[in-house]
Amino acid sequence: MxxxxxxxxxxxxxxxxxxxxxxxxxxxVILLLIGGGHGPGRxxxxxxxxxRTPPSSILQRGAPQT
Amino acid sequence: xTMAPRLRKVALTAHxxxxxxxxxxxxxxxALAVAGLASQDPQTVRAAxxxxxxxxxxxxxxxxxxxxxxxxxxxxxxxxxxxxxxWVLAKFLINVFATIILLTFMQRGTLGYLAGAAADTTxxxxxxxxxxxxxxxxxxxxxxxxxxxxxxxxxxxxxxxxPYGWRKQHELRAARGEYxxxxxx
Lengths: 66, 185
What we know:
The structure holds two protein chains of two kinds. By secondary structure, chain A is an all-alpha fold. Chain A contains three helices and no strands. Chain B is an all-alpha fold. Chain B has one domain (5-175). In chain B, 77% of the residues lie in helices and 0% in strands. Chain B is built from seven helices and no strands. In chain B, 33% of the residues are buried. The model of chain B has no long low-confidence stretch (mean pLDDT 90).
């Protein structure tokens, strides 16, 4: 009785992709943890909002989550 | 269940159109995001953020959902399957990831915040320039990169069966009698 061939294993490109995806996700999580949040307050141009009070009309809308 | 050849062509056309359209609309969004970030002219910033919200809501999100849906139809309705080949699975995961990020970014995130600021006519030009953000540029740039990867996977279709795909392929071969002496009951 002939058995079916053995599974040849995961291709190299899949392993490379998987590692790259894990690294990106880890970096993102680390940035979230040390950055304490994610949103325009974090990415404002020239750090415009860092250490300053945003306009009151913007504050009333609440902080975005992403 | 596999689709008839004519239906498969229709589904493939819909998938390519929506996916490439999604990529193009993200490129347009990126141009607006860069203009909104780099310009010192409040009118340009206001127009860019309002344009980004409209493009996102009425072009990017529909094309994104259409791409996801037609991709599912295309994979499940053909012999490729959704979980049999690594390249199909990778494209699906990229699409799902991009969809989650896009919907969060659109509905609860930075874009709504920026578009709200741009639509607020009581906001002074100085305040408007202060709320400019790098986030749309980062999100659009990362999306563009992911979509280029997905397009490349779709075109090159790199080899590689998942363990599930391998098992299914050999079950099919066994059923066809390609393994002598291993007749299924």
